[in-house]
C-alpha cells in the first residue's frame, strides 16, 4: 500500500556476559514463548520510556540475579521475524556482581566464543556471534600494480592487524593471479588471517582459500560452490542478492554502496537507513561498503553490520 508504514520494531536489549575463563553466557528460551528452545543472550524488551542500559540492568537482575557494572555497545541487529520486527541491541558487560542463576527456570550454558555457533539460536543472533568471533574489517585489494608491491602492502596490512582479506585482481592473467594468490596465502596463513580470492571458484578450490563471488556469479549459482569450512562470500546490492546469499548458505556478504565512492561513480548510494532495512531481511553477517573508513566500524555495528569493507582507505600507505 502506498504510504503504508511498517510497525516500529520492538527494542530488545541483551548482554554478553563472560566468566573468568572467557566463556560467554547463553540462556535457553523456555517452552510456550516465541522461539522456544533457542539459546539466546540474556536480556529482554525495553519498556516505554526506559533507557536501554537501565532495561538491560533490570532484565539481568530479574532473570539471572546479577548486577552489571557497565555496558558497552557491541552490535545492534535489526531483524524481521514473520510476525514482528525487532532490534536486538547487544552490549558487552565488562563485569557484574552476584552469581548468574536461571531465576525463570531457564537453562544456562557458558560457551567458549568459538563454540557459540553450534547452539541453535534465533536468526538475529547470528550477526551477534559473528561480531564476537570474526574480523570487523574486510580489506579488498586495489588492482595490484605488481606482485612485489602488492605483497609488500599485504605484509604491512597483516602487521597492522588485518585478518580478513580479499585478493581482487580482475586484470591479471590466470597464471600470474594463481602465483600471487599462493604467495598471499603463505603470508595470510602465517599471520592467522583469512584470504578470499575474487571471482575465481576454481582457483579458490585448488588453493583451499576462500572465494568472494561477484553479484552476477552469486545469482547464477544454485548451490554453495565450496564446502563448509572454506569461506564463501558475495557482493550484494539489494534484497534479492542478499536472499540468494542466505539461501546458498554463504558465510557473509558485503552490501553497498552506503556512501558515494570514487571506485564506483555510477552507483546510487543507499545510506545507513536502507542498509539497516536490507539487513533486517536476512541473518547473514554483512559488511558495509562504499565511501567508508576503517574507523566507521562502530557506525556499521549500530546499523547491524559486521563492520566495514573497503579498498583504498583500508590499506597501509
Ligand atoms: N533476550 C534475547 N531476545 C532475543 C535474542 N534474539 C532474539 O531474536 N530475541 C528475541 C526473542 C523475543 O522475540 C525478543 C525478546 O523478548 P522476550 O520475550 O525475551 O522479552 P522479555 O525478556 O522482556 O520477556 P517477556 O516478559 O516479554 O516474556 O527478542 C537474544 O539473543 N536475546
Ligand atoms: Mg528475556
Automatic annotation (TrEMBL):
Signal peptide: none
Catalysed conversion reaction: 8-oxo-dGTP + H2O = 8-oxo-dGMP + diphosphate + H(+); 8-oxo-GTP + H2O = 8-oxo-GMP + diphosphate + H(+)
Keyword flag Magnesium: yes
Gene Ontology molecular function terms on file: 8-oxo-7,8-dihydrodeoxyguanosine triphosphate pyrophosphatase activity; 8-oxo-7,8-dihydroguanosine triphosphate pyrophosphatase activity; 8-oxo-dGDP phosphatase activity; 8-oxo-GDP phosphatase activity; metal ion binding
PROSITE patterns: NUDIX, NUDIX_BOX
EC identifiers of the protein: 3.6.1.55
EC main group: hydrolase
Protein name per its UniProtKB record: 8-oxo-dGTP diphosphatase
Annotated source species: Arenimonas caeni
Upper lineage: Bacteria, Pseudomonadati, Pseudomonadota, Gammaproteobacteria, Lysobacterales
